[in-house]
Each structure stands twice: as C-alpha cells, then as structure tokens.
Amino acid sequence: MLSRIGATAAHAPAKVELCLRAAPPCLASSSSSSRRGPKSHHIGHRSNGFVVWTARRGYASSRSVITKDKPDSKIAVLGGGLTGLSTALFLSVFAPRASITLYEANERLGGWVHTVDSEAEDSQGRPHSVRFERGPRVVQLKEGDANSRLYVLLLHQLGIADQAWALGQDSELARRYIYHPDHLIDLTGPSNSDNRLIKAVSLARFAGRMLKNALTEPALKGLLPALAHMLSNRKPLGAEEYCRCLVDSEDESIGSCLTRIFGGRSSVADNLASAMTHGIYGGDIWKLSIQSTLFARAQMFPYRLDVPKASRASSFSVERLSDLNMMTFVTKASSKDSVVTGQRLLGGYTGFYGGMEALTEALVQALRKRSNVTIETGSLVADVAPSSNKLVEVKTAKSTATFDKVISTLFSRQLASITGGRVPALGEKKGASMHVVNIWFPRSGLNHPHHGFGYLISSQADVERGLLGVLFDSDREGAIWRESEQREQGEKVSSLVARQQPPTGTKLTVLLRVPSEDEPSRTPEQAEVIALAHVRRQFGIAADEPVHTQVSTARDCIPQHEVGHQESLAAAHAQLESAFGGRLAVAGPSYTAPGILPSIRAAFDVAASCTGLDAAYRGLAPSAADHALAEFSLVSDPTVGATGLGRFADGRRSMWDDLAIVDGAVKADFVGLKKESLQRVIVPRLQFGSFSKSS
C-alpha cells in the first residue's frame, strides 16, 4: 500500500541500476556531491528490450522528509491552484500519517481553472444562463504520454471519469487556423482514421491545401525553401552523439533557433511559430527559450537519428527514463475500470460536461475528506523563513506555524518576495498577464464558415496590439453535445451526461495580452471594446447584433521561460539549498511547462520526492536482471530532488542522465492499454484507493 511505502522508503537499500551503455568518459569521470549511487553497467544491446541506449549512471537524492522515525511530519503547500491542490492530495495519500496544511490567499480554490455561469437574455428577450470558461477548457491526451496516463488515473480515482467528454483527433476540435495578415488560414492536419482509404484521401487533400497555401499565403512565404534547406542539410548521428547534441546545445530564443535552422528565413518564425507561441505562452518568440519550451526538440531538426535497427524496430525515439518509469507506475496502479476509461479518453481531446472547474472541485472535495489535510483559505502568506531545528516558518496575517517541509506552487516572483531576498534568482522571472473576454451572441452560426477550435494570431498580423487568439466555444460545445448523445445511446451514462442540451447562440473567447510596463496601459473595458470590434470585423457581425460579454484579468498567469531560464533555476536551486537546506521545494508552471497535464505531473513528482515514494521503486524492486524493462523501476526522476529543481543542480548533466533511445515497435507494446503485456514489469503493485472516499 502507498501508506506503508511512504513511511519506509527512505531506508530502502539501493539497487544496482541497469544501463545499456556507460556514460561518455567526459561525463563519467566527473563527480558531484549532490549525486550518489552505483556506476553504470554495460550489458550490451538486447533484441527483446526496447531501450537501445541510455547514459544513466546514478540517481539524485530526494532527501525525503517522511522517514521511519518521523512518519508524522508536518508539510505545508503554498497555493490552492491546480498544482497546489494536486500536490496536497498526492501527499495525503503517499504519507497518510503526515499533517498537511494548504494555504490559499483567496477564498476561492482552483486558481486559473474557473468556470462561471452568467445570466443573459436570448434572442427573444428571455432569461438565459451562459457558461463561460475563464481559464483552460480542453486537455489533449496522447496514448504514449506519461502525463496523459497519470491524468486518466487521477480522474478515475477522483470518481469523475464519467463526467469527462471525449472527442477524437478527427473531431471539430482538430480544425485549427492562424490569422495573418487580415484573414484566416486553415492549417488543419490530415485525418488519423484507421481506414487506410480515408487516411490516404485526407493526406492528399492536406498536402494539396498546404501546397496552395505555401504558394499564395503571405503567412507561409518562404516555407517551402525553408523546409528544403533543413531536409537537404540533415546530418545523421548515432545514439550517443545525437543525445549529446540535444544536451550540449546552447540556449537561444525560439525565433533565432528556427531562423537558423531554416536557412536564415525569419518569416517561418514570425508568421507560424509566433502564432503557436501566442496560444501556448502568450509571449514573445524572440525572448522565450528554445530549451525550456515545447519547441525544445526543434533544436534537433538539423540532425537525423541513425541507430541500427533492432529485430522489431520500425523507428526510434528519444525518451525520458523518468517518463517511462511513470508509465510503468500508472499501468501497474490502474484497475480494470481505469483502463477502460483510458481507452475512451486517450488519443483525443477531453474536458468536463460541467466545465473544467469540475476537476479542481473534485480535488477540493477529496482533500476535505482526508483527515490529515487542513485547508486555510483567505490566508495570504507574508513570510517564509528558515527556523530552528531544521524547520521552516510560515507566517500569515492569521497565524504562524513551523513545518518540516514547505512546497510552494506560487508564481516564482511571488515566492521570491516572501522569502526575504533569500532566493533572488526567482525574483527575476516574468509572467504574461491576460485579458479574457468571453462573448455570447444569441444568434447561432455567426462564425460561419470557419468552424473548429479557433484561431491564433501571428505577431505580424494586422490587428490591435496584444490580440493573441479567438476560441470557438460554441463549436466545441456542439461537438460535446453530439458526443453525449452518442454515449447515451451506446452505454449507461450518468445523469450529467443525459442532461446535456444542444448549445444555442455563438460563443467566443478572445485572448489579449495585458500590456507590459513599458507599453500604454489598457483597462478591462478597453479590452472588451477591442475584442468585440475584432470579431465583428472578422465575421461580419453587425454592430447592433445583441451580445453578452464578461471580462476577467489573469495576472502573471503564464510564467515566461525566457532565454537563460535553466541557468537561473540552477542558481535558484543553490539558493534554496543554502537558505533552507532542502526544506523548501517548488513546483508548477514557473519551473516546468504550463498546462493541466504538466501541473499534475509536477505535483506528483514533488510529492513522491518529499515522501520517499521514488525511493520505494528502488528499494522494493527485485534484481534488475529479472526483466528487460526492470531499469525503469530503478530510475528516480532527476527533475525534483529536495528543492524541486534537482535537474538544474549540475547544469545539463541531469538531463543527459534521463535520456534514452527507445525502440518504437517494442515501446508500442509497453504503452498499450493491455495490462497482461506488463505482468513482469518490476514495480510493486501500488493501490491508490479512491480519492472520492474518506480516508
């Protein structure tokens, strides 16, 4: 059981780790006081294994605060957003004898995940309730993704999996556009249908449409010669050399990296990549770090992985060993019902019939049922400081308390301000603030003929400064309603699914970046005027068309990982160690990627590190020689450690340790949902229990 593992893992004996290849001499010869563990062992290539190459040597010490002698440790979690709520819940399950206190400055919990019902009038002047999302509304789940699998398991354990809708990759949500310079361009990809004929026809249409766009659209000017330059100059690299290039590459902006790769053509970055960056980060493509964003693998576009094929391999990919370890854990922890849930949700888009806030509400309800959790709302943390006896003191206007461990999920600059200058590196971080303008027209179909998820706006588009994108919420809701109708006909569903009604009107969300300090200011009212003017002009909507709007402002909602992000976090790691001795850790989008899935993964990782669950993998695993996949049972996630920033402790070496070249054919079996293919994976059978029940 997790409770037993959490209490004893810190004393588990270390096991020899299995590696397929020793580290390169330049890395193997160096050492660090922050690392311990056995040297790697070269056992040669195995045709029945799927790790072809890995450099892993040892593992990072997480210095768990939950030990056999002190299972009743006191832990504080700062911040009641998605990351904070998830962290507190995982802690309460992994360490049921620990006392956990969650601090949130506002009375409301849930952070940027916020669903609101607004009263409006329909086209006949009758009262009508409109549901708006002020934050995220859709999650894309991938079958071979560790974070997606963890999300599915969490939904099942919270008891809300049946409240989640599921739309495939060929649904209306897959239709994507960019806006440049003054009109929409369809960039929807080809079909993922299992039918070969449908897939072939869709691919041919996609290729024809993209060729036409590349020849006629200013947004795609230079794309064809840019691709030709990149493909004609690709260099083949072996496994070790390929990973070395990935790790040793210099940090630079997304824009400069893409411009260099595409032969000096900046138009691809300015027109295409800038629109994607607006949608994910709300930031400047010429400032954001290529290494610290979802564009990181773009650095490897000039190279081609050249590995001798194993007996079954059709392709190879670069993976994180810690992700494979997570996949093993989730698969072994899953019940039959959660596997069925995964089969329905994975490989497409999902959300909740009642709005995305159903997720954070379920987390709050689960926490309130746990006897070892205290939630302090309306408690703004004013000071966090080291105390005597290796404790950390947390002060609010209401109280002062000391803890064995404090985990902050606050925006990094906010944490810097309440730690008395002890972690100055975090004070240098920036965050993008957003105006979210929710719009509802009582008349339906006003965004015709453009239907789908919505569109993103390139940095070179002819629009008001700060406009980032427009989401077609009514199109999404229409697809969800049709999905609920199909579910109701084909399976037994909850009353929530059965009560779904077809959407009315045209619902849109316009995203605008709040101006920076050196730009002219903009009020929420001005943002509303700009948003309405844009959609009326774009879709030809008359000025006298009835409309209902709401505006909200999210301050520092998307941390900006600018060039040098990893170096500043290495400094922050050292400062946290020096000032707090590893008793203060951090987690959340200030440090890792933004979004629902990365936030939940960050919460799991820091909770596992704090309670010693990661060490349990090593201590409870039998001999590594028992199974070809056993190495993943013996791998700790180097991204965490005592501060949450362990991967930055020794520069890029931790990243090197976590890389592996994977045989794609065998990985496909490994990530499959059929549990019988994983019966001998060496991970203890861990049971979460249901979070929806009282502890």
What do these coordinates show?
33% of the residues lie in helices and 20% in strands. With 695 residues, the chain is an alpha+beta fold. Among the domains are: 2-110 and 316-428 and 562-671, FAD/NAD(P)-binding domain (3-Layer(bba) Sandwich), CATH 3.50.50; 199-299, protoporphyrinogen ix oxidase, domain 3, CATH 1.10.3110.10. Strand 17 and strand 18 (392-396) form a beta hairpin. The radius of gyration is 25 Å and the shape is globular.
Q: Summary?
A:
This protein is 33% helix and 20% strand. Among the domains are: 2-110 and 316-428 and 562-671, 3-Layer(bba) Sandwich (FAD/NAD(P)-binding domain), CATH 3.50.50.60; 199-299, protoporphyrinogen ix oxidase, domain 3 (Orthogonal Bundle), CATH 1.10.3110.10. It has 695 residues and is α+β, with helices and mostly antiparallel strands.
How do the strands and helices of this protein lay out in sequence?
Elements: H1 2-8, H2 25-28, E1 35-36, E2 51-54, E3 59-60, E4 74-78, H3 82-94, E5 99-103, E6 115-121, E7 127-133, E8 139-141, H4 146-158, E9 164-168, E10 176-179, E11 184-186, H5 196-216, H6 223-232, E12 235-237, H7 239-248, H8 254-261, H9 267-280, E13 303-305, E14 316-320, H10 321-333, H11 336-345, E15 348-352, H12 357-368, E16 373-376, E17 381-386, E18 392-396, E19 400-403, E20 405-408, H13 412-418, E21 430-441, E22 454-457, E23 467-472, H14 473-490, H15 495-498, E24 506-513, H16 524-539, E25 548-560, H17 565-580, E26 584-586, H18 596-611, H19 613-620, H20 653-657, E27 659-663, H21 664-670
Parallel strand pairs: 4-5, 4-20, 5-16, 10-22, 12-13, 20-26
Antiparallel strand pairs: 1-3, 2-27, 6-7, 8-15, 9-15, 10-11, 14-27, 17-18, 18-19, 21-24, 21-25, 22-23, 23-24
Helix pairs in contact: 3-12, 3-18, 4-10, 4-11, 4-18, 8-9
